[in-house]
Amino acid sequence: MSQSSPQPPLLSQRSPVILLLGVLTATAAAVLTAWAGGTIAAGLLAGGAAFAGGVLFFDAIIS
Q: Is the pLDDT of residue 21 over 80?
């Protein structure tokens, strides 16, 4: 039985790092918004916006 060549990875190493940093940014924004007296819904909206902005930002600075 011959061993076939392994498939290339689905994502580069850069992509999960950028997405992880986006998730951490979103989590921090959501927690800080809720902690400051905002509602959970406001925290989730702030987290979503922070995720989008964070991914764009980290994509631009990580080469």
A: yes
Span between the terminal Cα atoms of the chain, in Å: 41
State the amino acid at position 18 in one-letter form: I
Q: Are 51 and 23 in contact (CB under 8 A)?
A: yes
| DSSP line for the chain | -PPPPPPPPSS-SHHHHHHHHHHHHHHHHHHHHHHTT--HHHHHHHHHHHHHHHHHHHHHH--
Euclidean distance between CA atoms 12 and 62, whole angstroms: 13
Torsion sign across C-alpha atoms 31, 33, 37, 39: negative
What's the whole-model pTM score? Answer: 0.82
